Amino acid sequence: MKNPEQSRIISALELELKEGFSLDSSGHDWWHLYRVRNNSLKINLEEKGDAFIVETSALLHDISDWKFNGGDDKQGALEAEKILKKLACPLKDIIRIKEIINEVTFKGANVKEINSSIESKIVQDADRLDAIGAIGIARAFAYGGSKNRLMFDPNAKAELHESFSAYKNSKSSTINHFYEKLLLLSDKMKTTTGKKLAQSRNEYMKDFIEQFFLEWDTDSNI
Ligand code: ADP
Ligand code: NI
């Protein structure tokens, strides 16, 4: 159960984020934050982390995403700290939330991932659930369009990135992004509950890709 101070902080955050993320067309709009928050809390019912830390981190996880801020993967946690301080959130909670925001983002297929807490695993799994399945497909093409990416280029091979900088600088087509990230996520889920929830979404994506190549009349480019 949240205490009244925690409820006040969450309500204020919701208001600020609804406004700040209302115009996004890259799949990182308010409703992405809303779904990640709800799925985080759903996973947390089984995994039993600290619900306040899970909820605030989920709401703030994309506050300054490196994909949109010029590539700085530390900016998000600093931005979150500013907002939480303004809302008089306890410092010990801010420290935990910043750590999670620094850990959730995907940095390349072969880049080692660190999750220092169960809350970090939960929020990352919930963010990844929103990157796969029907919503994941929709978000991928919305993102690709917003970044002027080709939908698919039969001449470009998908690549499993070994470093964050290689991943960050890649300009892959949206279909290649499925091979470089989205189809890998169900195996990278960190909680038992997240793994379970990912299965049907992953199957749905595999069916989509199969149908895509059937219609394109070529083999998958992997
Ligand atoms: P993460 O921090 O792990 O990247 P986000 O919630 O910020 O998670 O957003 C990830 C989503 O952005 C992906 O699931 C996908 O929909 C979209 N995306 C990111 N990179 C690409 C890309 N190169 N091509 C298509 N979509 C992409
Ligand atoms: Ni996200």
Structural notes for this entry:
There is one protein chain. With 222 residues, this protein is mainly alpha-helical. It is 61% helix and 0% strand. The chain has ten helices and no strands. α3 crosses α5. It is globular and about 60 Å long. 36% of the residues are buried. It binds adenosine-5'-diphosphate and nickel (II) ion.
List the helices and strands and how they pair.
Layout: H1 4-20, H2 30-47, H3 51-60, H4 75-86, H5 91-104, H6 118-129, H7 133-146, H8 164-169, H9 174-180, H10 192-216
Bound molecules: adenosine-5'-diphosphate (ADP) and nickel (II) ion.
Key attributes of the depicted protein:
10 helices, binds nickel (II) ion, 222 residues, globular, binds adenosine-5'-diphosphate
Largest sheet composition: none
Distance between the termini: 48 Å
Low-pLDDT sequence parts:
none
Q: Are any ligands bound, and if so which?
A: adenosine-5'-diphosphate, nickel (II) ion
Shape call: globular
- Helix and strand content put the structural class at mainly alpha
Q: How large is the share of residues in beta strands?
A: under 5%
What is the helix tally? Answer: 10
Number of strands: 0
- Kindly provide the radius of gyration, computed on alpha-carbon positions and rounded to a whole number of angstroms: 18 Å
Order of helices and strands: HHHHHHHHHH
Mean pLDDT, to the nearest integer, reads 96
Residues in helix, % = 55-70%
